[in-house]
Amino acid sequence: MYEQFYNLIEPPFSLTPDPKYFYRSDSHHRAFELLRYAIHRREGFMVVYGEIGTGKTTLCRAVLDTIEKNVHPALLLNPFLTEVDLLKAILADFGVTRPTVSNAGANKQELINALNEYLLSVLGSDGRAVLLIDEAQNLPLATLEQIRILSNLETHNAKLLQIVLVGQLELMDVLSKPELRQLYQRISIKCELSPFSRNEVEQYIRHRLAIAGGGQSRIVFTPDAVKAIYGYSEEGIPRWINLIADRALMRGMELGTSRLDRRVILDVVDHLQLRPKSSFGRLWPRAWSAKSK
Q1: Domain of 228?
Q2: Which of 83, 111, 113, 215 has the fewest CB atoms below 10 angstroms from its CB?
């Protein structure tokens, strides 16, 4: 809607996890490099976790976009899978379509054998197979145990499948359960994504505007606007930053300005019924706060 007004190629603050907009904050840069290293070295088992909206999916897609061409990725976005459904989904995403796999009555061992054959063929061509599972905190315990079994697929000197579990903070609580002790012990890399600092919020906004504007963006978020965005975004959660900044661009167009100051941000957060991060670490509607008095 506002792209023409601001001379933008596309909206800069979309909520979709587009890897070209990946911004390397301190914690995101560390996680990015660790994942690339671990996949290259066939480390086996990795975990990425963080608060809702900290850019975990975007990070993983950015990693997959930049790793070697001989890496074969499978990305599962639905964690509510039984053990058999998990195996079928993995094989389907790897593109394995042999009759044994597509047979509705295929049992677990047949599916594991088919996956093992595929992984050996990938290794034989000096490739790496990587499985990423998003929202992994929702995986049933039996399915997590099946994932542990998959991590056993190996030759005498190489892991056949690199597994990355991606999830919210409670993922680590799930993995720490006594019944998953063997799985937890196999994790070689643990990456926690933190919210952005105030300086990183400013750089993040500039980064996205530069990409969406082809380097020609004339939009200015003033320092007091950035400070307000930081305060109303649960102190640096990318998803909230995107939402507030996107609405600020719409409000700026209504006002006929490309200079977005604190007043514009306060108009936006008032419309969204947001308030600064509370001592409980959450955003609450202003209306709720008023009623509670």
Answers
A1: 196-291
A2: 215
